[in-house]
Design a protein that fits this description.
The protein is an alpha+beta fold and 325 residues long. It folds into 2 domains: 3-118 and 181-321, Immunoglobulin-like; 127-177, no CATH class. The chain is 22% helix and 39% strand. Strands 3, 4, 8, 9, 13, 16, 17, 19 and 20 form a 9-stranded mixed beta sheet that branches. A hairpin with a 4-residue loop joins strand 3 (37-49) and strand 4 (54-62). It is flat.
């Protein structure tokens, strides 16, 4: 892949790699809408993040005098198909809809959440348009690329007219312009005064570049920009340089990005009572992030714990690994 495309992939993959805290929601025409739920508090959140798995445990409590049954939602962020069409991205699941293998349990009982699947273009829902022309909204669907390279003339014309594909698209190669989103949701009863424990796991979609670190190290302005985004201090930057110098000419440094949307916790009542975060890195891998108070507690592990925590920003993580890792 040309360096230009790799750099474009790096800049766009962070939103894709993110996933969100559970949130209260309602299902309307047009899809899930997150709402504020002021009777239920999040007493605890234990969050574990690695490139292979995200594992989250919550403890909620209904402070109202009566039981409450609400829709709980786990929305994935928008996937920009235009930017991912020719990009390198790590997907660990073979399921084109649940492409993160999302699983959830409430008080030890596994829940089978429903899925809300939407394609968006400039704020307009075009899911029905795509399906009418036999195009899967998701770039992860195994039929996606075949459908974009075998368009009947009528479909080509209709999709161009709607702006869903680029004006230079042909029947043999159409260029998508929409964004794709999945939300997992289920109905949950919160008994008055009693805690409810949620556990959910998923395999994050990780943005990957095989040339970004080398480019950063050769371009001070780019290094400055990325360093600010991920709070890369001078010792971390020096470790990147040492990693590059260790095996000159024998392979480029791999970089990986993922994120976690933490700020949806604000939809519940009050702050998170107790918040604990653990971030792991792999063998021959280093990590940088902007999480305040994070401390290294092992060779490849960082952690932080906060009380009455109000997240003001989401978590973004930058990993770099040497060629042999």
């Amino acid at each position: 892949m040309p360096l230009r495309l790799l750099l474009s992939a790096l800049l766009c993959l962070l939103p894709l790699a993110a996933a969100a805290n559970d949130s209260s929601a309602r299902l309307e025409a047009g899809g899930l809408r997150l709402i504020e739920e002021k009777d239920i508090v999040m007493e605890r959140e234990d969050l574990y993040i690695s490139r292979k798995q995200v594992h989250v445990e919550y403890l909620f409590r209904n402070t109202a005098a009566a039981d409450k049954t609400i829709v709980v939602a786990f929305p994935l962020p928008l996937v920009k198909t235009a930017e991912l069409y020719d990009s390198s991205v790590g997907v660990q699941s073979q399921n084109p809809v649940n492409f993160v293998d999302f699983k959830v349990w409430a008080d030890g009982k596994q829940i089978m959440p429903k899925q809300d699947v939407r394609a968006w273009l400039n704020g307009k829902d075009i899911t029905a348009l795509l399906l009418r022309h036999r195009i899967p909204p998701s770039v992860f669907d195994p039929k996606f690329y075949d459908s974009m390279r075998n368009l009947p003339p009528a479909s080509l014309q209709a999709l161009k007219a709607a702006g869903a594909i680029g004006p230079d698209s042909t029947a043999q190669e159409a260029y998508p312009r929409w964004s794709y989103q999945v939300g997992y949701y289920w109905s949950q009863t919160f008994p008055a005064g009693r805690p409810v424990k949620f556990v959910h796991t998923y395999k994050p979609v990780v943005g990957t570049s095989v040339g970004m670190v080398d480019y950063m190290l050769s371009e001070p302005k780019e290094m400055s920009r990325v360093a600010q985004d991920y709070c890369m201090d001078l010792p971390f930057q020096n470790r990147l340089r040492a990693m590059q110098a260790a095996k000159p000419g024998q392979g480029v440094i791999m970089s990986h990005e993922l994120g976690y949307i933490l700020t949806t916790a604000k939809n519940w009542r009050g702050p998170i009572g107790s918040f604990r975060l653990i971030i792991d890195a792999g063998e021959n891998e280093i990590m940088s992030t902007c999480v305040p108070g994070l401390e290294q507690t092992g060779p490849r592990r960082w952690s932080v714990q906060q009380q009455n925590y109000r997240p003001e920003r989401d978590i973004t993580i930058f990993y770099a690994s040497s060629p042999e890792s």
